[in-house]
Structures are given as structure tokens and as C-alpha cells.
Write a structure and sequence with these properties.
Blueprint (H helix, E strand, L loop, with lengths): L1 E4 L2 E4 L8 H7 L18 E4 L2 E4 L12 E3 L12 H8 L9 H10 L8 H4 L5
Length: about 120
């Protein structure tokens, strides 16, 4: 099976029943965090074809041939994504565990969606 994660191509076979979160971590992308394992906390949020998903709920095989982006994939040519910079500059992290998922969701929001943050961030604790 072929996968594109953070712009890099991988040929790998996920284990039977393996979720995207553990599959991506097994390939070395540790910015994806394990939280609740139920899709409630958002710590495992990644983009699948540019849309945020809770990777603990997505079977790994469903990402075959699609583009997966983790928090590490937001930076380009050594420069942080504007949302990563915003979190850094505002010291918007506590223990940092939920930060990656929060950044992934926040970075996906349109200007219109940013007008209702409580609604659009409800999937991230």
C-alpha cells in the first residue's frame, strides 16, 4: 500500500485494524499524539487530503493513496507555518500534549470559521 505523509512517499502495510494514528507514529511521525482513543480530545488530529480528522478513528488503510499531513508537515523549508508561529509567540501551550492537534485544527479554519471558534474547535480539548 502506498501513502504520502508530509510530502514523503511510503510503501507499507498497516496491521489489521490499525488506526491511522498508530500507523503514522510507526513510520516515525511522533507529532501525532495518543489521547482518548475515542475521537473526543483531538490530540491525534492530522489532515487527510487537507481536512482535519481524528486519526484514532480512521483505519490506516483508508489513507492509502491520499495525502496525510501531521504537525511536522506544516513547516516548509525550515519555516514554521503561521499558525505554529502564532501558538509559539502567544505561548499557547500548557503541557504541549494537545498542542499539535489544536494547531492542525486551527490551521485548517477559514476566515469565516474563525468567527465561531467555540463551535469549530469543539473537537479539540
Amino acid at each position: 500500500m502506498n501513502y504520502k505523509i508530509n510530502g514523503k512517499f511510503f510503501s507499507a502495510e498497516p496491521r489489521s485494524g490499525q488506526c491511522l494514528r498508530t500507523f503514522v507514529r510507526d513510520l516515525g511521525w511522533f507529532g501525532v499524539k495518543k489521547g482518548c482513543d475515542a475521537g473526543d480530545c483531538g490530540a491525534c488530529t492530522v489532515w487527510l487530503d487537507g481536512k482535519p480528522v481524528h486519526s484514532c478513528l480512521v483505519p490506516a488503510f483508508r489513507a492509502e493513496g491520499r495525502e496525510v499531513t501531521t504537525v511536522q508537515g506544516l513547516a516548509h523549508n525550515g519555516a514554521l507555518h503561521p499558525m505554529q508561529n502564532a501558538f509559539l509567540n502567544a505561548q499557547a501551550y500548557q503541557c504541549g500534549f494537545c498542542t499539535a492537534g489544536m494547531i492542525m485544527t486551527s490551521a485548517s479554519l477559514s476566515e469565516e470559521e474563525k468567527k465561531d471558534l467555540p463551535f469549530h474547535l469543539k473537537g479539540n480539548l
